[in-house]
Amino acid sequence: MIRITSAKFIKGAVGTDDIFEDGTPQIAFIGRSNAGKSSVINSLVSEKGLARTSSFPGRTQEINLYLINKAFYFVDLPGYGFAKLSQETREWLQKVIHWY
Questions:
Q1: Alpha carbons 5 and 64: distance in angstroms, whole number
Q2: Rounded to whole angstroms, how far apart are CA atoms 49 and 88?
Q3: Average pLDDT over residues 4-31
Q4: Distance between CA 29 and CA 26 in Å, rounded?
Q5: CB of 73 within 8 A of CB of 27?
Q6: pLDDT the model gives residue 44
Q7: In the beta sheet, which residues pair with residue 75?
Q8: pLDDT of 27-74, one tens digit each?
């Protein structure tokens, strides 16, 4: 098992970005809205507030990247399903997820 010694929020991206091409390995978290993806990241890094969490589905609306041990990224993708969002926003988020 890998011991996580450092974790840092790098950026939120909404599409093409050089960070996705920098050669750093990525571990992506994908699932339904309000399923606990951000909470899992916080638990794995032992930092309660690193990944923003909310009781409202659909809060994550970007691809959030966290640099772990200066060696790889955790990638927190937007959720899908339960979020009460406009149809236009839902379609945009679906495109972001499929693009990734």
A1: 19
A2: 30
A3: 92
A4: 10
A5: yes
A6: 95
A7: 28, 65
A8: 999 888 777 888 999 999 999 889 888 666 656 678 999 999 999 999
Domain boundaries of the chain, sorted by first residue = 7-99
**63 and 76 Cβ atoms separated by less than 8 Å:** yes
Taking only the tens place, the pLDDT of each residue in 81-94 is 656 677 887 788 78
**For residue 1, what pLDDT is reported?**
76
Per DSSP bridges, beta strands 26-29 and 63-68 are unpaired
Cα–Cα distance for residue pair 52/86, rounded to 1 Å: 22
Given the candidates 2.40.150.20, 3.40.120.10, 3.40.50.300, 3.65.10.10, the CATH classification of the domain at 7-99 is 3.40.50.300
Element (H, E) at 64: strand 63-68
74, 44 contact by CB (below 8 A): yes
Query: Which whole-number Å values give the CA distances from 5 to 48, 71, 84, in the listed order?
Result: 15, 11, 36
